[in-house]
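hi support,

uploading two proteins for the ticket. first:
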Amino acid sequence: MDTVFVRGLEFEASHGYTAAERRATRRFRVSLELRTPLDAAAGSDRLSDTIDYRRVCEIAVRIGTESTFRLLEKLAARIAESVQEVYPQAEIAVELEKLAPPCPGCPESCGVMMSFPARS
């Protein structure tokens, strides 16, 4: 299936399971894939016939920075739900990373990859 993607979108926020994590901010990185047919856009050259990745970025950053979540799974699901409010025809894959998480061994990032079926 055709795909519109956003890779490596970053924002700073206060998500985390512990109260200490939610008091401080840290960087998060999200990548999204929206799978939907793109043949109409290929023929028309009109933004209205495709998925506007600028709008997808705006939604992801807004959700990531205006709300607080304990789990990355909930944040990823909320981003996908919000994008699907605008693009219900798209199957969405979300990869969400917490950069430099407070874990033993100092990993570069930890995160989740989740998929959400199209609504229509």
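and the second one:
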Amino acid sequence: MTRVTAYIGIGSNLDDPLQHATAAISDIAALADTQLIGHSRWYRSAPIGPPGQPDYINGAAAIRTGLAPCELLAALQGIEDRHGRVRGERWGARTLDLDILLYGACTIASASLCIPHPRLAERNFVLYPLADLAPDLMLPDGSAVVELLANVSSAGIVPLSPGG
């Protein structure tokens, strides 16, 4: 299979979130037939979902991979599981959340996988890291990440560190 550039959203808000997020970068880089291109800086963001959650640490990674979308999803879920991810309450607190944001120019809508990520365009904690990583990035529908970023609020998001 041809190698494709994919973007992975990274989030954590339990059990030393920055450590989980940072370790996820190494775990993603170690995936079979996958090369890490880079990652964004880290951001602290207010949680979405059930009240009373701690803030999240969010970022994004860019990879070149030969894994098919479903294979990549399974590999990312394996990383989440190794980090103690418990799949319970929707949008609840978690040790690690890895989402395929984009996979080349693919558009996929299935019961198990939606690419581009369905809420990518409305979430500042996704758009800020993507803009750090690939400021000229275009979505499959022709939307520019920087234009989408201009349409979301910066409320509740704080940059923590330079990117890598």
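thanks. also noticed: The chain has a mean pLDDT of 91.
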